[in-house]
Amino acid sequence: MLKQLFSEHSIKFNNIIGESFDGAANMRGEYSGLQSKIKNQENPKAIYIWCYSHVLNLCICDTCKSLEAKNLFGFLNRLSTFFSESYKRMLVWLQEINSSLGSNKLKKLQKIGENNTRWWSREKALYWIFDGDQCLFPIIICALYHISISSNFEPKVCFEASSLLHNLCNFKIILTAHIFMNIFKIVGPTSRYLQTKGMDLLSAWGMIDSIKQEIGRLSFDCILNKSINFSNNMNDLLSSMNLPDDILVSSTFPVTRKSRKKRMYDEICEDESPELPLDKFRVDTYQTIIDQITISLNERFTDNNKLIADVQYLLPKNFKLIEQMPNTALKHLANLANLEHIQLCLELKNFSKVYPKINMSTIEKTKQIYHQLDTESDENTDDNEENMYENTAFPCKNKTTIHDTNNCLQCVYKLLYNLNMHVSAYSVLCASYEFFLTLSVTEVNCERTFSKLKLVKTR
Questions:
Q1: Mean per-residue pLDDT for 301-308?
Q2: Residue 116's pLDDT is what?
Q3: Which of 54, 222, 339, 397 could be joined to 401 by an S-S link, Cβ 3.0–4.6 Å?
Q4: In the predicted model, what is the mean pLDDT of the chain?
Q5: 257, 243 in Cβ contact below 8 A?
Q6: From CA 224, how far away is CA 162, in angstroms rounded?
Q7: Mean pLDDT over residues 392-421, rounded?
């Protein structure tokens, strides 16, 4: 079907450079998937890219498989459905939220989707309950308390409300929530960028690397202090509400019998696991979560790393390093794009030397020729900047946007093309830029189209 579609649109099937799928087995399968069939039929060098947005979401899903993560998100989902599955409970919720936040604020708690890849629902559920001064934590406490003591509800509903209230005040839940909030704050911007139009593979790869570094710099002690401050602030808010004094948000771990005995003897062997609740949580939960997301990021984002390394030398900011680049540089790129490696290196070295001059605007070029400065244009800075922009024939961004052309492959490609250098002077180099810029790293827009189609046809 795919080959027939290519034929109908007069596209050669053996010109496929790469393909991007979301990771379904019938698409990404190594032996019988579509990407393997494309490689086996006239395209052995075709590059398969698993949609970066989906892969990043799967890394988060791997992290959410720990016991404490399951307890946290399972509890948040039950908390949401507890109110939404009954009109009587929803009425209590609406009364509490209207009296506390006003009628224009959030009306419902965020449900956590059954589909594991939709982890943004977990992010929203955490932020709405635990983040900021206007979080819903105290409102949930009040609503659960009033349901638990109300005679209008059945005993099992009152018991469940009391149980949910007790779990919400549990410090382990609060601390786990703050761990994941810190992770989501690091991962969230990159995930949203990976779902936008106009992004490129190089930028996506760089943002993934920055995620690894940021997660490595997370501090358990810092997260612990934030959790303790959150519990203390919530207790201050609850004290001003009409609630019993025994409703208290915990800010410490309960001490177990084993930990009491450890404190009595105050000795522990080097190979013995920690028994103090906080130390045990640090090792078994926090470190497990951090290790898992680090491992997932390293394992799932290792494909095409040689290609990414080669493309670094095509960026203008790295042109000064070309003279020192190793002999193996650009070999992988040349092989995939069916280009002559030696010619590609020669053209890139030559182009890196002339790039600063040909990248100038017309005003700057003429100033160098005449060896003089136009004082009149210097007096009017705004006009000068506008003319410089207009005389540059290859900008890829709006002039109101701050854009670094030294870090943009598209700008270099447009420069080569607009100056007609792709025909003879730098034909191989231009082909290498063209090859890389053709690769797609996401198909989120396609996925959204299917989702809308499902809404129209079925729901």
A1: 82
A2: 53
A3: 397
A4: 81
A5: no
A6: 26
A7: 72
